[in-house]
Amino acid sequence: MAFPETRLRRLRKTGALRSLVRETSLSPADLISPMFVVAGGQGRAPIASMPGVDHLSIDAAVEEAGAAAALEVPGVMLFGLPAEKDAVGSEAWDDEGVVQLATRAIKAAHPDLLVITDLCLCEYTSHGHCGVLRADGAVDNDETLELLGRIAVSHARAGADALAPSDMMDGRVGHLRAALDEAGESDMPIIAHSAKYASAFYGPFRDAADCAPQEGDRRGYQLDPANAAEAVREAELDVDEGADVLMVKPALPYLDVIRRVKERTGLPVAAYQVSGEYAMIKAAAAAGVLDERAAVLEALTGIRRAGADVVITYYAKDVAQWLQT
Ligand code: PBG
After folding, report:
1. Which residue segment(s) compose the domain that 199 sits in?
2. Using CB atoms within 10 A of its CB, is residue 244 exposed (0-12), middle (13-18) or buried (19+)?
3. SS3 state of residue 202
4. Number of Cβ within a 10 Å radius of residue 295
5. Is 282 a catalytic residue?
6. What is the pLDDT of residues 199-234, one digit of tens each?
7. Which of 23, 161, 192, 263 has the highest CB neighbour count under 10 A?
8. Does residue 293 lie within any of the structural domains?
9. How crowded is residue 280: how many other Cβ atoms within 10 Å of its Cβ?
10. Helix (H) or strand (E) run with residue 247 in it
């Protein structure tokens, strides 16, 4: 039946009607708040490229985690800035490393809050790549796997609730699963960055985490932004290797990928609204050309509508606050 029998505006007439037929929900329970923890840091220090996000000492991270928990954000994702970097990123698997210490401290203070750790070498290597470099400058996949396995076991022993490998090495979910099994950590969920694109939108994060590659770029291991079938292939391989949640990153330019991965696998899908997506809205709001709150809620609702069950966003605490008022 068409117009005039059908008038879609009938259900748009009042807020109550719109709410009754709303297809997509957004709640603090869907969100994860990323945090940057600095080894030996004191208190908080603002991150210039990401207004509103701070570098945190361990104490400040515990406080920040408590603030997220108080707003009913279910979890945080930890990124670590080590005291020292070296060619293989050895601080990453140090049981007294910054992420390990922060994980223990946060879990002790807020046992019900989920602590998800980012698992990657780029913040820890002097060259800024996500793995060990071969003589020709390429990242050595299989040698990197061995190091990622050590990080996974160390994070698990520190009490992490889930691990989120973001390196994009081939075979890493299977390798991590085997390393965790061997360490008696078979119950550890893996949130695999299955479709992590070689994206310009990571720019602000690379300042925040001090992990821009000294030479070259990450296109030799991260996905080509032009490819979606390949993302589905990555996701399917991760499922076969034992991933529990699949992640797509960035989020807004890749809504079709979120949808395809969700439909093809049926697994829980996480989407990461990355630093550049955050900084764009912040800059537009600061310039007075966007309503920040409305733009953020719309972007996050769009990401959920595309099929994301979980959204990782630097706006998590703000959104939780906005949704409560
Ligand atoms: C590194 C990593 C990156 C991000 C998360 N983990 C950057 C990169 O791959 O260069 C980006 C997150 C963001 O931009 O918010 N493994």
Report:
1. 24-323
2. middle
3. helix
4. 16
5. no
6. 999 999 999 998 999 989 999 999 999 999 999 999
7. 192
8. yes
9. 16
10. strand 245-249
**Quick check: CB of 103 below 6 Å from ligand 1?**
no
* Integer Cα distance of 101 and 98 in angstroms: 5
**Is any ligand 1 atom within 6 A of the Cβ of residue 218?**
yes
Q: Is the CB of 208 under 6 A from ligand 1?
A: no
**How many Å lie between the centroid of ligand 1 and the Cα of residue 117?**
13
Q: List pLDDT tens digits, range 115-146.
A: 999 999 999 999 999 999 999 999 999 999 99
Residue 18 lies in a domain: no
- Ligand 1 and 314: CB distance under 6 A: no
Does residue 129 lie within any of the structural domains? yes
Task: State whether the beta carbon of 78 lies less than 6 angstroms from ligand 1.
Answer: no
Catalytic residue flag (residue 196)? yes
Q: How many domains does the chain have?
A: 1
CATH of the domain at 275: 3.20.20.70
Domain contains 4:
no
Cα of 194 to ligand 1 centre, how many Å?
Answer: 13
Cα–Cα nearest to 167, from 180, 182, 188, 150:
150
Q: Quick one: pLDDT at residue 45?
A: 97
Instruction: List, as one string, the DSSP characters of 109-138.
Output: H-TTSEEEEEE-STTTBTT--SSPBPTTS-
The pair of structure tokens assigned to 288 is 């007075």
**First CA to last CA across the chain, in angstroms?**
40
